[in-house]
Write a structure and sequence with these properties.
alpha+beta; 5-stranded mixed sheet; 11% strand
Length: 205
């Protein structure tokens, strides 16, 4: 922008040339204000160093460099030793579980091999007649015990055993039931089974 000399008046004071004023207005119109400037086009600025945390203007290059150090929200793959807040014991949400949370939960669990339970352990009660390695609850034992006849006064021979079908779960003493030897037998509804070894004692008539 060229400046036009301002002639002095009769009193020696300088008068602004109307053309110069117009040139200044045009030039200022192309400038952005310091307060809340509204930039147009593709403004550029120096790119701050990674990790800068000031009021310096952030360029797209600065933002991209910072973004490259972040994990994605969907299926992130962390590196190094990620850390997170440890949830309170018993938390059952989608919150990330730290090793401290898992260790705290693990000490409350019993081992699979030879567990030692405390308190009042509970388990599902097996159906009457179940003969597996399933844990027997007190309810299962009581149900079986209610079906058993006491051995005292219930001595039979193979020939005098009552009908197995009508004595399911009942236990008797058979004086000659196991290959001629005395044994205890229980009815499974079809046969009387030797309790100790499971061989057929006799079929109730």
């Amino acid at each position: 922008m060229s400046l036009t000399p301002i002639p002095q008046g009769a009193t020696g004071s300088r008068r602004l040339n109307a053309g110069l004023v117009a040139e200044l207005d045009t030039a200022l119109a192309l400038k952005a204000p310091l307060a809340s400037p509204a930039l147009t086009g593709v403004p550029t600025a120096p790119t701050a160093e990674p990790g800068t945390n000031t009021t310096q203007l952030a360029t797209t290059a600065f933002v991209d460099a910072a973004r490259a150090l972040l994990a994605t929200l969907a299926s992130p793959t962390f590196t190094g030793v990620p850390a997170a807040p440890t949830a309170a014991p018993g938390t059952n949400t989608t919150q990330l579980a730290t090793t401290a949370f898992v260790d705290a939960a693990r000490v409350l669990l019993a081992t699979l091999a030879s567990p030692t339970f405390t308190g009042v352990p509970a388990a599902p009660t097996a159906a009457p007649g179940t003969n597996t390695t399933q844990l027997a609850t007190t309810a299962f034992v009581d149900a079986v015990r209610a079906l058993l006849q006491p051995l005292t006064g219930n001595t039979f021979t193979v020939g005098t055993l009552p009908a197995a079908a009508s004595n399911v779960g009942r236990c008797v003493y058979c004086s000659d039931g196991a290959a001629g030897s005395a044994c205890a037998a229980v009815s499974n509804g079809t046969d009387w089974k030797v309790i100790a070894i499971g061989n057929t004692c006799a079929t109730g008539g």
